[in-house]
Automatic annotation (TrEMBL):
<feature type="region of interest" description="Disordered">
    <location>
        <begin position="177"/>
        <end position="201"/>
    </location>
</feature>
<feature type="compositionally biased region" description="Basic and acidic residues">
    <location>
        <begin position="142"/>
        <end position="158"/>
    </location>
</feature>
<feature type="domain" description="UBC core">
    <location>
        <begin position="15"/>
        <end position="167"/>
    </location>
</feature>
<dbReference type="Pfam" id="PF00179">
    <property type="entry name" value="UQ_con"/>
</dbReference>
<protein>
    <recommendedName>
        <fullName>UBC core domain-containing protein</fullName>
    </recommendedName>
</protein>
<feature type="region of interest" description="Disordered">
    <location>
        <begin position="142"/>
        <end position="163"/>
    </location>
</feature>
<dbReference type="InterPro" id="IPR000608">
    <property type="entry name" value="UBC"/>
</dbReference>
<dbReference type="InterPro" id="IPR016135">
    <property type="entry name" value="UBQ-conjugating_enzyme/RWD"/>
</dbReference>
<feature type="compositionally biased region" description="Low complexity">
    <location>
        <begin position="177"/>
        <end position="198"/>
    </location>
</feature>
Amino acid sequence: MSSPTAVKMGNLPAVKRQHLLAEFAGLKQACPQGIFVSLTPGDPSLWSGVIFVRKGPYAPAILRFQISFPDTYPALPPLVTFSTDMFHPLITPLTTYMYSTDVQDGGTASAFDEERLPPGGFSLRHGFAGWFGRGSRAREARKEARARGDQRSVERGGGEGTMTVAVTTPTRAVATATGTTPGSAASGVSAASSSASMPGYAQTGRREVSTYEVLRYIRSAFDDEDVLDSVPLEAAGNPGAWHAWRSHRKLTVEKALPGQGDSVGVGSEGGAQTEMAPATPITTRRPGEWNWEGVWEVRVKKGIAASLSEGVLFGNAGTADEVINFLNMDDAEVEGTKANLLRTLGAAAS
């Protein structure tokens, strides 16, 4: 068990600085393929990065992002923001002032929501649920309180011959990058609440998440359809993109299985497969009932083309000063640069 003194030492700025520098040095030896990161001069808590999407639904986009590490990292998550505008279920739109990571279908967001994302923010809630326990525990506590209230009302209203009915919420499994499976059982809520109130040095079973895992998950969110399929609505940074992706996947399945599209679901708000409910006369349609056909394809194609434009790649169009820059070189210049690098590496090895 770690001592309280060690925990206090871990909170010192110098120690945290060395921790981040050590993580960055490790990425020089092993970094997820297609991702390049660089430190901001004089500030190791702010990293700049570029993702080259080489496969999957967002290929061949080139995306710029930043990672800001809080003083409490790795106890609390870093903030990942994309400066490249992309229509993605986990990225909040750049034109939106503030999005809550707790937005539900038909719900509203307020300035008092628990975890909030700025424009361009990338939601890590799905991949690293352990970092976002406060909102989940609060929701589960409310559900448990309502269940107890329903149980008491049944007991009071039924008399001696009435059976007591306990209302429970089934556990829902969601695949995440860290292998965790969030549930909604009452025992899980109690354990999470007690863990939250426990001092950090006493939580010996908690595993720290490395920056490598965060980068690998971010890459998988662009090149792996299965990851996007498993994202629940409550973890989405852009609910509109979430619904558009579901519509796109449903059409893909219908084309692959002619005549079976009506019986095949591609996920619902909770990640489970459900059938369409019968039409009912309503005055206001929820976002899940809008016509999202073709929206994802058009928006993503436009975003990929913009990310590859010369103004964005070489002219820093619409972005602040970048730490990582690209040079507009022709084939001859590229070959000459590669030859110079090979000569330098050969001289260093000899």
